[in-house]
Design goal:
154 residues, alpha/beta, 5 helices, 45% helix, 19% strand
């Protein structure tokens, strides 16, 4: 029987990321900005071969103020991710940011800048998983993967 891997997927337009948390607690992160679509798909394919995967894809949409180019890029990422998960037979559930953030007791304050908010998420993750190397770009995906692991404990 294969070991389990829990995937958290933040489809962000430029800073998107897939994180895998394995049963032993180790973490592997694929940052979209550092890989081509083909590269991250091949990595994901290897993970799917070796592990029994389950995943959570952050349910996202365009936001007011985003340019047409940004929304187009963002939604293209979502389509690539969904197709990759389907092609690799990795089950996924879409969860809104509010759902997984509520699990951690986190809520963005109206006066809080994006940078401040990302810093708070990163600090939360560092408290939960102090040995994991984390950046503002990877914290969401790792938190989503951890949320996936916690709600799928058997």
């Amino acid at each position: 029987m294969k070991e389990k891997a829990f995937l958290g997927i933040d489809p962000g337009s430029n800073s998107g990321c897939i994180s895998a948390i394995y049963e032993d607690g180790s973490v592997y992160t694929i940052e979209f900005s550092k890989k081509t679509t083909k590269d991250w798909f091949e990595i994901l394919k290897e993970i799917a071969k070796r592990y029994d995967c389950t995943s959570i894809l952050e349910k996202v949409h365009g936001m007011p103020g985003m340019s047409v180019v940004a929304i187009s890029s963002f939604m293209k990422n979502v389509g690539h991710i969904e197709m990759a998960l389907l092609a690799l037979n990795i089950p996924f559930k879409e969860v809104t940011p509010q759902t997984w953030m509520k699990y951690y007791g986190m809520k963005k304050e109206k006066t809080e800048s994006k940078t401040e908010w990302k810093r708070r998420l990163r600090e939360l993750l560092q408290r939960i998983m102090p040995d994991v190397k984390v950046t503002n770009d990877t914290s969401d995906a790792i938190l989503i993967a951890n949320y996936c692991k916690q709600i799928n404990k058997s």
